[in-house]
Design goal:
GO molecular function, one term: protein serine/threonine phosphatase activity
Number of strands: 11
InterPro entries: PPM-type-like_dom_sf, PPM-type_phosphatase-like_dom
Keywords: Hydrolase
CATH architecture: 4-Layer Sandwich
Organism: Collimonas fungivorans (strain Ter331)
Distance between the termini: 27 Å
Structural class: alpha+beta
EC number: 3.1.3.16
Number of domains: 1
CATH class: Alpha Beta
Amino acid sequence: MPEQSLLADMAVPVALSLAQLSHAGGRQVNQDSWGSVLQEDLACVIVADGVGGQYGGEIASNIVVHSIMEMFVEEASFGPRALQSYIEHAVAQLNRRQAQIPRLKDMSSTVAVLLIDQTNRCALWGHMGDTRVYLFRRHKLLSATKDHSLIQQFVDAGHCSPEQLRRHPRRSILSAAVGVEGSAPAEVTQNAVQIQDGDAFLICSDGFWEWISEAEMEQAASQVTSQASSAQEWLDLMHAVVKKNGSASNIPLDNCTAFTIRVAEPRSSASR
């Protein structure tokens, strides 16, 4: 193939198929929020998990998601500095609302944000707290964010096993969250990851990943049969595992939110 033709093919944006679910689990209120927006060939996908009584968590996560989406729409850009600025904008907006309404001063939220440049075929992500971003390639886990939590620190120090991240009674104590005074800053990927046809992302709150192992995520990915609807099929398969594992426990189920995103060459997917 001539070089000019090859470059032209590489400039064709990859296609994305997305699927999403969210429910309250065993709680009265769903304090998770989520959103996705496409500006030209840049995609932004967000999941936030709120914390706070009297609907404070629901308000916090909603502010975080809509603040990021608002700034992305106004100043759509791809890069670690841009992503950091989107999250910092959400922090500022939440802090402003905390100051305006004293009863909401303790509300906070985790957040995970995925940016995809469809034309240049690359992605980067940032997060605060224990809402996670996973990247799978050829049905195998390639990358996953590391929680900003007390138990993750124990795991890193060798005092806990990785399995404790899902079951330790203190697993919800966070070292970073939007709206928490003195929180560690967002962790943002500094080098964009090149994405390939068939790559799949999962963005989810702890109410989802606590009830499904990474091996079960991979197994579900390998069972997907339809390329055209693979994001939805993969999510459905994983959600079935989450419901099965969660119902077999005596632990009250948390709010549960997840996005799946599949990358495909335009010719192999009708969904953009």
